[in-house]
Amino acid sequence: MAETPRFPVPPTRRRIVAAAGGVGLAAALAACGNSDDSSNDASSDTSSPSSSAPATDPTTSDAGAAPSTSAAAGGGTPLGKTSDIPVGGGKIFADQKVVVTQPTAGQYKAFSSTCTHQGCQVASVSDGTINCPCHGSKFHVADGSVAGGPAMAPLPPEKVTVSGGQVMLDS
Ligand code: FES
């Protein structure tokens, strides 16, 4: 016959801590289990990073980057001559914070010159890319898309009008 203690075992500090630790461990394991479950779920969704890259689909920026070369001139800010913009390159207009490129002869595009990484002004256009001096991001002259990080988002398009050999920034 088992002996029943006459008095209940008093709750010592060690027992309380151990019990709390056990509960905490169980909670932590449960949390890890949930975390693992959700990360497994998330890993199946890696093809759609909608939460980290909103509205920056480079496939759609091309259309927005197209200058309105056929638009009637009027009310724009003169930037310079088309002859100042090299084919395959571009020119930065620092005062207007715009970079105008000419990916192919006669095709002009314009983008904000503010780097999408941390807001520096891009400083050069060379070898088919627009280059930020701060951390080395590069953007394609053709569509402003990222050619090299750390920037994740393309340069936003700007609208320019080309008329009579002049490039005008639409207002
Ligand atoms: Fe342009 Fe960081 S601000 S690369």
Automatic annotation (TrEMBL):
Keywords: 2Fe-2S, Dioxygenase, Disulfide bond, Iron, Iron-sulfur, Metal-binding, Oxidoreductase, Signal. Transmembrane segments: none annotated. Residues 77-169 form the Rieske domain. Its cofactor is [2Fe-2S] cluster. One of its GO terms (cellular component) is membrane. Pfam families: Rieske (PF00355). Residues 33-72 have a biased composition (Low complexity). This is Cytochrome bc1 complex Rieske iron-sulfur subunit. It comes from Actinacidiphila alni.
